[in-house]
Amino acid sequence: MYMPKTATSSEKKMSEEDLEMDVDIEFLLATFSDLSYESISDVYLANNGDLDATIEMLTQLEIFSNEAEEYLPDTLDIGDVPETIEPSTSSAPKQTNASTSTSSRTSNAPSS
């Protein structure tokens, strides 16, 4: 006769913890709607599932990011930048090979 498997206390505890985590993350997603699921779950897990610590951390991050935006310029003023860069036509002197210039000289030494 087949007996249905009964959940052990550790399995029940795990499913309760999973359910609690899912509920907490859903709450956090509703509260911090600008953040992704991955970001919220990472912060939640970094705080070992402590909902209050996670809310505190996400609130601080939200405040910090809002304060940082106040100091950002509206536009980046980097001056006029040409769309295309033309190749350089510099008139730098060309270097000559030293061995070539010495070999073209005639020797003044007497030949025997």
TrEMBL record:
Gene3D superfamilies: DNA helicase RuvA subunit, C-terminal domain. Residues 86-95 have a biased composition (Polar residues). InterPro entries: CID5/6/7_CUE, CID5/CID6, CUE, UBA-like_sf. Residues 76-112 are annotated as: Disordered. One of its GO terms (molecular function) is ubiquitin binding. SUPFAM superfamilies: UBA-like (SSF46934). It comes from the Eukaryota. Pfam families: CUE (PF02845). Residues 20-63 form the CUE domain. Residues 96-112 have a biased composition (Low complexity). PANTHER family: POLYADENYLATE-BINDING PROTEIN-INTERACTING PROTEIN 6 (PTHR37252). This is CUE domain-containing protein. It comes from Brassica cretica (Mustard).
